[in-house]
Design brief:
This protein is mainly β and about 100 residues long. It has no helices and 9 strands. A 5-stranded parallel sheet has the order 1-3-5-7-9, with no helix packed on it. It has a 4-stranded parallel sheet with strand order 2-4-6-8, with no helix packed on it.
C-alpha cells in the first residue's frame, strides 16, 4: 500500500536507496547537474516530498519510525548540502519542512 513517485532526471549522478514498510507516500525528484545521494528507511504511514536540485552535491539520510511523520525536504543550490534525520515520532503526528539553498 505504498505510493511512490520517483524521478531522476537531467545530467547529474543520482543515487537512491529506499527501504519502506507499511503504507507510505513518497515523492522524490533528483535533478540538476550535481551528484545527489538519498537514503530513506520508513516504517508505516509516513509522507515524504524530497527535491534535490542544482549543481551542488546534495546528500540526505532519512530514517523515520513511530507515528506518522510528514517531511518536506528541498536541497537546491550550487553549494553542497547534507541532511540527516533519524526520528521516532511519539506524538500523534510529527512534521518538518527543511529548505537548504
Amino acid at each position: 500500500s505504498n505510493v511512490m513517485d520517483i524521478d531522476q532526471t537531467e545530467a547529474g549522478n543520482n543515487i537512491l536507496f529506499l527501504d519502506v514498510d507499511g503504507s507510505n507516500n513518497v515523492t522524490v525528484d533528483q535533478k540538476g547537474s550535481g551528484a545527489h545521494y538519498l537514503e530513506i528507511a520508513l516504517t508505516d504511514s509516513h509522507t515524504l516530498d524530497i527535491t534535490q536540485d542544482g549543481s551542488g552535491d546534495h546528500a540526505a539520510s532519512i530514517n523515520l519510525s513511530g507515528n506518522p511523520t510528514t517531511l518536506n525536504l528541498t536541497q537546491d543550490s550550487s553549494t553542497d548540502q547534507n541532511y540527516l534525520l533519524s526520528q521516532t515520532c511519539t506524538a500523534v503526528s510529527c512534521s518538518a519542512t527543511v529548505t537548504q539553498n
